[in-house]
Amino acid sequence: MNAETDELYSLLVPLTEDRLIVPRACVAEVVRFTPPDHEEGAHKWMLGTVNWNGRQLPVVSFEGMLGKEVPVATGRTRIVVFYAGSGQLKIGFFGVLTQGFPQLVRVNRDVLSLHTTEGWPDEAPVLCRVKMINEFPLIPDLEQLEGLLARESIQA
């Protein structure tokens, strides 16, 4: 194996008190925040939908999914548009609120190690927390997040 196949381009997605780390290939686009159209009866983490390229994109607060307060939007707030790879969402995409632009990083076995698999609610879409040099980002379970979104859109 060469060095190129041992590395993965990833994004560190800033949340209020945390960061997510996701493969760059999972992200379609980062867009300016616009207030979502909220649906009555939705979970507090389901912020609503925004118009994205002529589609109604569901937007969530990852902090809300962790049982924390949904952050207030600021001038730095963005929406990270993810590909919905599991096929559970008909639109094929979903958005996650972020507190700034994601940072591109290259990760490999030398800089990334498992830190913990607990410390968040059981139903939260988190696989684990990793140690990456001096950072401790969460790896989200994007398939579970899609499933929660799919169920939410059926219920709302």
Could you walk me through the main structural features you see in this protein, from its secondary elements to its overall organization?
By secondary structure, the chain is mostly beta strands. It has a single domain (3-155), classed as OB fold (Dihydrolipoamide Acetyltransferase, E2P), CATH 2.40.50.180. Helix content is 14%, strand content 40%. The protein contains three helices and eleven strands, in the order H-E-E-E-E-E-H-E-E-E-E-E-E-H. It has helices at 3-6, 62-65, 142-155; strands at 8-14, 19-23, 27-32, 46-52, 55-60, 78-83, 93-98, 103-107, 112-116, 126-132, 138-140. It has a five-stranded mixed β-sheet with strand order 3-6-7-5-4. It has a three-stranded antiparallel β-sheet with strand order 2-1-8. Strands 9-10-11 form a three-stranded antiparallel β-sheet. Strand 1 (8-14) and strand 2 (19-23) form a beta hairpin. The termini are far apart.
Q: Gap between N and C termini, in Å? A: 48 Å
Biggest β-sheet description: 5 strands, mixed
Number of domains: 1
What is the overall shape? globular
Q: List the strand order in the largest sheet.
A: 3-6-7-5-4
User: Could you tell me the strand content as a percent range?
Assistant: 35-45%
Order of helices and strands: HEEEEEHEEEEEEH
Radius of gyration: 15 Å
The CATH superfamily title: CheA-289, Domain 4
What is the helix fraction of residues, given as a range? 10-25%
What would you say the CATH architecture is? Answer: Beta Barrel
Briefly note the CATH topology name.
OB fold (Dihydrolipoamide Acetyltransferase, E2P)
The computed structural class is mainly beta
Number of strands: 11
